[in-house]
Amino acid sequence: MKLLLVEDNAELSRLVVNLLRDENFAVDCVPDGERANMVLTAQRYDAVLLDIRLPGMDGKEVLARLRRRGDKVPVLMLTAHDSTDDKVDCFSAGADDYLVKPFDARELLARVKALIRRQSGDMSVGLICGDLQYISDTREFRHNNTPLLLRGREHTILETLMLRQGKTVSKATLMESMFSLDDEPSADAIDIYIHRLRKHLSMSSAQIKTLRGLGYILRCKDAFQ
Questions:
Q1: Residues annotated as DNA-binding region (predicted)?
Q2: CA dihedral 107, 109, 110, 112 (to 10 degrees)
Q3: I need a labelling partner for 95 at 20 to 30 A (CA). Which of 53, 177, 202, 224 fits?
Q4: pLDDT digits over 86-105, tens only?
C-alpha cells in the first residue's frame, strides 16, 4: 500500500517515513502544500498523512481541493494544536481522522491501518485466495497458517494483487504502488519480483498468472483450469 506524507519538519518527516517503510508501506513525502496538491492530482494513494500548518498552501486548503476533485482517499490530519476549532475545520473539510503532535508511533500506525480498513470495507477481517490468507489488521500473509516471509517490495506487489484478486493488474499499476517519487521506476524490476513471488507461492494454490500485454492476475490455481 502506498501513502503520502505531507510534513515540513524534516526530522519528523524522516522518522515517520522510516516507521511506515518498516511496516512495508511505500511512502512518498513532500514538504509543502503546493507540491502535495500537485502530487495528489497525478498519483493515487491508499491514505494521506497531512500536516495542517504548511508553508504556502496549508493542509486545510490541500484537503479542500482534494475533496472538491471528488478524491475520497482517507486523510489523517497532523497538527501541533489541539483546538476544537481546528478539529471542526478539518472534519468539515473532509478529514477522516485527526492526530495531535507529538504522537506515539504505535498510535500513528494504528490510526493509519484503521483508516485503510474502513476504506476497504469488506476486507475488515482479511482476504483468502486458496490456501493464501491476507490478514488486514497486521497486513500479514499466511500460507496454510504459516507466515509467508516476504521482502518489502515483494510484499507490496503481492498485497496489490491480493486487494484486486481476480482482476487484471497492469504493470503500470504495480510500478505506481511499489516505487516512490524518489525512485527510478523499472518495468523490468516488476518481472523480477513476480518471479520471486512465484517461488514463494510454488506450494500454494494461489498463483500469479501473466496476461501478456495486459498485466498480472492473482487467482486460486483451480480458476486457471
A1: 124-220
A2: 120
A3: 177
A4: 788 888 888 999 999 889 99
